[in-house]
Amino acid sequence: MAASITFIKFHLQVKPIKTYLNLSVSALILSAGISTAYGTTVNGVEAEGNVVPAYNDGSTPQLIAPAAGSTIINFDEDLEPCQFLSTTALRDKYMTMGVVFDGPAINDGGAILDECSNFSVIGHSSPNFLAFNTAAGLSDGGIPQGPETLLFDPPVDQVQANVGSGNAGTIELTCYDSTNNLVDSDNILSTDALQTIAVSGSDITQCEFSFTGAWMVLDDLAFREDEGSCTPGVGVYDSNTHTVTGLVIDASAIGRGCIVVDVLKRNKVLFEIINTQPQP
Fold first, then answer.
1. SS3 state at 101
2. Residues 186, 191, 194, 200: what is their CA dihedral angle, to the nearest 10 degrees?
3. Cβ–Cβ under 8 Å, residues 219 and 129
4. How many helices and strands, by DSSP H and E, does the chain display?
5. Are strands 71-73 and 99-102 parallel, antiparallel or unpaired?
6. Are the beta carbons of 195 and 186 closer than 8 angstroms?
7. Residue 198, CB half-sphere, CA atoms under 13 Å: how many?
8. How many CA atoms are closer than 13 Å to the CA of 140, on its beta-carbon side?
9. Cα Rg for the chain, rounded, in angstroms?
10. What are phi and psi of 10, to 5 degrees?
């Protein structure tokens, strides 16, 4: 009887130790081989096995500096994830800077990712960019797909961004005014090296980025507030009474690229404002 009791005690003591050792070994195997077991991140999603991301095709970034006075959003102010499953579509993060982002459905649209997402692009400002992948999923079930709509308040007169990827196809930027009339559009054939796509015109309140391929990167968005077009007409200033009849002249018109002509006529000065496009 004593021998039997000793055996039971010995069995109870060893079993938890054995279980602990098995768990420890499993944990070591997982931690040591996690990159192999779970793959690498490519285009914002986990790829099976040791997939090596594609490298640049040899093209060179074709980038244009933003116009003076532009608001620039480079998406780099916060730490962002490598994968779409760890985030949601961009919406009102930059509302106070004058723009709100929207996608084709309630949870769809581009998401901000770190360059560890491995889109294999060059020409972006490190480390983050706005990313799209039509085959990926976001944490709330949305899809990081286009078209991506940007809503501007106040209106702007210039919009540009650096865009591209090895599989974005044709990328197009189309912008509309406050009455939904087409203002301007631009398109490029995508490459791994980012290119600047840009539009300009008065009273731009909405722009749409679209692409025909599977994934795309957008970075360094820039836009300039529209201060209003020049008002054509003539006003007469009487130096005796210090009054203006006719058109009231806005001094800021000069800064917007308007031409102001003055002609001395005895004790009066004739002011004429000629309507021109605002200058970059």
1. strand
2. 0
3. yes
4. 2, 15
5. unpaired
6. no
7. 20
8. 12
9. 30
10. -65, -40
Rounded distance between C-alpha atoms, residue 278 and residue 226, angstroms: 9
Q: Rounded to 10 degrees, what is the CA torsion of 247, 252, 256, 257? A: 70
Under 8 Å between Cβ of 226 and 153 = no
Q: In terms of Cα–Cα distance, which of 65, 224, 74, 255 is closest to 155? A: 224
Q: Which two tokens stand for residue 177?
A: 């005014």
Q: Is the pLDDT of residue 260 over 80?
A: no
Read off the amino acid at residue 160. Answer: Q
List the end-to-end C-alpha distance of the chain, in Å, as a whole number.
99
Token couple for 162 = 């650096």
Measured CA distances, 28 to 17, 25, 50 (Å): 17, 5, 20
* 3 state SS for 25-85: HHHHHHHHCHHHHHCEEECCEEECCCCCCCCCCCCCCECCCCCCCCEEECCCCCCCCCCHH
pTM for the full predicted model: 0.70
Give the range among 1-15, 102-116, 170-184, 200-214 with minimum mean pLDDT.
1-15
**Residue 47's pLDDT is what?**
85
Are the beta carbons of 168 and 142 closer than 8 angstroms? no
- The answer to whether 80 touches 139, Cβ cutoff 8 Å, is no
